[in-house]
## 1
Amino acid sequence: MNTLPAADALVRRDLSHLWHPCTQMHDHQTVPMVPIARGDGAWLVGTDGRRYLDGISSWWTNLFGHANPRIAAALADQARTLEHVIFAGFTHEPAVALAEELVRVTPPGLDRVFYADNGSAAIEVALKMSFHYWLNQGHGEKTRFIALTGSYHGETLGALSVSDVALYRKTYAPLLLTPILAPSPDAYEAEPGESGAAVAQRRLGELRTLLEQHAHEVCAVIVEPLVQCAGGMRMYHPDYLAGLRALCDEFAVHFIADEIAVGFGRTGTLFACEQAGVSPDFMCLSKGLTGGFLPLSAVLTTTQVYDAFYAEYSAGKAFLHSHSYTGNPLACRVALETLAIFRDEPVLERNRVLSAHLAQRLDALRGHPHVADVRQTGMIAAVELVADKPRRTPFPPGDRRGLRVYLHGLTQGALLRPLGDVIYFMPPYVITTQEIDLLVDTAVDGIERAVAG
């Protein structure tokens, strides 16, 4: 296997003190740490001058390229004016203008905006706000949440409580709430001859059964619309969202849409919920919200929810949740500039061309003897590697076949960081068709090497 050059001084300093996320640090005895000096559009440039095509948008955050000059200029301008101010009892133009713009572009009925500073924090806000709404309404018995099998909503204890990826959840299970799990509408789990839409209807029937049994104790159903990202890029039909909205209305529970990863154009529409024509009770946003520049998240909700907290202080109904950097002016300003790019440029139209090209290039992998599935929703695509295709038997986890693809990608100047043995593509929107070709060619070659022997 090809390797990168020996670690430079920056890497040695890093490994002397830092503890990196989602990483077994022992791996870096053999897996290279890659020191980056700067970004350039869809590319990352190493301290040694090597260039890496960012096929995963740096954990799904970057939309319009690294060091985007338009967003960078807005950030610099704001930094000369106001960097931060307490957001309790104070306000400022970037936060107000961003809230107005988010209300304008999100599905109808989401008229109130609560800021936090990362995706997990947004989920915490939505969970607490949903529970507190029902408590304020005299329904303190509602204390549970329904989540989908295979779901992932973040790493803080509340967010992890409504997640179902054992890799992240198992260790901390004694500390967590116990969710009610509804079977995912994942189209990969279709019976022979069953369509994605039919899977959605079958799973809605199972969700109905759960609600009939548990609605009295349930605050909300939380889902990642259309794509369960960290759970392996599992994808499902929009009909499930439409049916979910109807069931939540029927059984008087909230619908929380976690659009942290899928929002801002990733699925082909600005928000995934649009493809079902539904409005959730809570929409959680982060990642692409700032174009990948700064941490920021937002929870949008309805006037009905807001009104349940609006009372004299003595009533004890206030939502007393806070973050020190709530409504940070720098982050709000770059988020405004990110949304302005969507407004000023034909982003979604360009993405349709790029996603069609990606689909065309990946189509050849459908016949590969170790590829069980090639799936795509907008600018998100995934290739599922298996040991036995007819039986869909996975490779033993200890084989770490996906890691082999990652390592090969680095030697070829491509950042492809699989989820287990799922090789996925979620590039910045500034990528070109030629750069997509580079990503796919590198992935195909990496897959051949990974499944050999």
Note: The chain has two domains: 9-67+347-451, 72-344.
## 2
Amino acid sequence: MEPHNSSFLWVLLLIFMLNLKTPSVQGLGVNWGTRATHPLSPDIVVKLMKDNGINKVKLFEAEAWVLDALKNSGIQVMLGIPNDFLAPLASGVAIAENWVTKNVSAYVSRGVDIRYVAVGNEPFLKTYKNMFTNATLPALQNIQAALIKAGLGRQVKVTVPLNADVYESGSGVPSEGDFRPDIHGLMISIVKFLNDNGAPLTINIYPFLSLYADPHFPVDFAFFAGTNAPVVDGSVSYTNVFDANYDTLVSALEKNGFSSMPIIVGEIGWPTDGDVNANVQYARKFNQGLLSRIIQGQGTPKRKTPPDIYLFGLIDEDAKSIDPGNFERHWGIFNYDGSVKYKLDFGSNKTLVPAKGVRYLPAQWCVMAPDASETDPKLADSISYACTYADCTSLGYGSSCGGLDARSNASYAFNKYFQTFNQQQGSCNFNNLSVITKIPPTTGRASCKYDIMIDLGKHVKARSPRTSAAAIRWRSLDYSCSLVVVFLLSLIVGWVA
């Protein structure tokens, strides 16, 4: 072979070495919500996902500033459509075509790897009182037709993320699962439509909510470590609620003629604050158990292969609705600023790494003035005002800052307001009860801190920091695995030289 061919192979070898990527956990994605007063720069978030080997993301709506950051990122996207859009989309295919052109075709052509369009989000929740029941299937059909017209029918699949309350078991055992009677016919129509178009069914499963809704729910059953009181279903003993819940859905599909229907778990996770059972210890226990199953390729008794799973969520959202509970703002595996909440083992000594390039407002806090009285009649109203416009969910009963003394409680609320409003002049003015300090205040609890908000105007492009010892070990392992390939390539080069 000619010498230039040998040189070409050496170039390929060099490219291979330079493009070793952070390994990902196959089948693991995350939900990226943006309901925050100070959302991280999308470029920083995309880098955060890539640094942690996360290559699938679910978005709740088409936001240009987010989609632009995902161009050529190599991250697969499930793009959501909010429930409020269902009725317009159901009214005519032309509206669906316009939506697909603007939000799917335009971004696919620019390098965004959109794999799914999620039509609605848990539209059949009983709390919605049938508000979206009639619009969901027509909207789904119109979006599918629009994708086909755009030439994306094979590349982009439709789905509908549903809450696990769309199916049930009268006896409580998974094998007797079926779809909810009031929407049974509709569910069959949706499943058939998805099946006919080679699309998956997406379901959201929340063991935490089982525990939240029922104080008598067995705590151990919410996790993956086994329980002394399993649910016995014939020859199968279910030791955790996830397996039991998932297999109830599988039984419902089997019972109605869709035994091979693909399933995606669109949301699952555990919050770290806002409720007595929402804490770092439980969140780590649950998410680590879930991760370990994915890494090991462990499925459920009815389906041995695990589904694709989208962890909920990526980052805390301090402006999210708390109608379901205060915990809604604390689902992230990362804090509001992309810092790591707790250690998660992704296998082979790889753990979470924080966001890079985040800048903060000046190191100053708004606290209760030393000379202010805890019995001042204006204090309660001042705290109430601060918590009306800032996130004080951590002050609730059973939360990380619950039960603080009066002074710390007021200081926490004042500082939350001060930081939320970017430390602007006048934002630490609570009836002469507050003062700005540059001395870091403390609450006396490791889990309860006075935050400094990120500076939206000072994000910098993330740079690679010094490599940690854990990262060095991981990369050493990764390189050692790659050396086999390198060795084989070098043999080929030597042979053709």
Note: The chain has a mean pLDDT of 90.
